[in-house]
Fold each of these.
Amino acid sequence: MQLDYTPIHETTRKFHKSDTFNRWLMGPLGCGKSFAIAWEILIRASQQPVSKFGTRRCKVIFVRNTRQMLKDTVLPILQAVFPDGIMGHWRESDSIYQVRVGDIELDILLRPLEDEKDIRRVLSINATFCVIDEWRELPVTIINDIAGRAGRFPPKEEEGCAYAGIFGASNPPGEDSDWHEMLEVKRPDGWELFRFPSARSADATWKRFLIEGYYDRLLDGATPDYARVMIDGEYGRSLAGMPVYEKTFSHEFHVAEEPLLYVRDKGYPIVVGMDFGRTPAAVFGQRDVTGRVLILSELYKENIGLEKFLQDHVKPHLLEKYPGMPVRVIGDPAGWAKTQINELCCADILQQNKLPAERAPTNDPTMRIEGVERLLVRQVSGKAYLLIDSTCKMVIRGFNGGYKYKRKKDGTYEPKPLKDEYSHIADAVQYLIGGVDGLGGGYSPVKSHTPEKTSYRYV
């Protein structure tokens, strides 16, 4: 039997091509992520080595949080992709959906995680790989336990597993969730996130498979929070406050899919926005040949002085990532205030480290935020004017809602952003943009400095 399958979006295509152990699809309602998961199961089963029995054996643990949801949502999708009686057979007595196509012998075990007994049952199964539907509804802490069941059937001494891992699909979780922390902040090696664009974007190519006006009807009477998650595919808003860039930042638009490359020309200096204090932060950027502002890398440390931050982190980072490039440091204007102890200010410490700094144009948070938003809404040839490298996890999380206005008891918000772990990196971004864009006044080259290799040391 020949089966023809074409991914309906580039996000799906990239997901299928990846062999990363932990792979997570995330997007709005109706984007086809669940069907992509079903096809991925078959694709991986077809890659299994042929056993001594002449079949490609594959056993999959397919998890959702309740039995009813498995029957109401997962089973119908499997039956649609692998029709019951033609390709598939539902064994209700033991909750296994069997798929037989050519030499593929695929058993999909539908398993809930409603209580400790369910969890123990799942953790006793040997599987080829594991799948989780609506992973946002399960604690991220259980993922490693479930993943430990992958790669164990067929056993290695027989034909083994061509692919062993865990993957799944979900609507976005909240910004306060452990899933957000894992996917956007920690993102350990062996984890990969695949995000669909907003259903309201021109790139929502899957809409041709939906009834006319599907999303318009969903939007009728929808709350902003519902639309943000279920239509735009963004993380749910934090209950602790209102994101500063809620109306101007879009993860899919402003975060680069591919690594950003800096312009290796001394006419385009690396600009470092820097926030001082005991939680120093530095954001490294550049204006490229098209005029765009690129945020290339970041540094963020806690409970460390400026001298150590420069010597152990900033200067080695510049030498390693931007060797020979001229550098402009744009700092918090408060860093020019002399201390009463030794009459040295932060600017003096930078000067001593051969990194002369300039004051940011303003320290007014409203003006700085407006300067960032001016760049967020601008485009160059239909693409983002302000583009962020995906490795800048702290910067991205700040834009995604970590940097916020605190909600007061009466439901209103403080006029200035909350001072917390995200405010330092957000301030550094604002200083950088104030330096390269002059708060909207355009870019005029300022004297830059090329760091000397002899001034660096590695830790």
Amino acid sequence: MAEILKVSSTSDPSATAGALANTIREEGVAELQAIGPKAVNQAVKAITIARGYMAPSGVDLIFLPSFVDVEIDHENKTAMRLEVKTRLPFKPDKATGNKDTEKEGGHEDKGADPEGTENRQESNEEENGGEDILDI
């Protein structure tokens, strides 16, 4: 797991979001840790802002909250740990060795799916007796 990004009540959500987005791009997953309600609020704001930073790349972020016991100044405290992942599988830059998605000539590589239909969600309401089920 990547380095834990520690968020305080005075952390700038935009700066934290930038660090979070860069960690996701490099590692594919990130962890935020916050102690106290104001710090948790700043962490959730940072995740929300990072989702906006990542959305143009087609990457949607989700987070899984959990509690973790930490020791600070020889005192045990309970922190909130927020594991941030991508909704769909994502290859981080670290694994591919590429820092951007641009190929030579200035065009993005569309691969075997030139129309971008591979991850499109479609409604099957008529096929399923009125229930709206999404195929991914």
Amino acid sequence: MSASRIAATDDAGARRLPVRLCHLHAWSDFSGYGFNLLAIKDKRGHYIQNIEHGPPAETGGLRVGDRIVEVNGINISSENHQQVKLIQHQQQ
């Protein structure tokens, strides 16, 4: 079983909120982690758009609207959307 550590924070504009470390574990009977990643034009960051009920993302603590700042120790703040998706898929 593979696992990913994702650092996420609620999006609050200029306010700094605490970062949560979410542990996602791949399930043998489920493909992926159960969330959609979104890039918003003219807004910095990568966001959780949708979470399926039950799969690893929900049980791991991710929330819709979270801004992802790190995946398995890799800071993704300056990565483009395609690079982040590639990192996410390489970790599975």
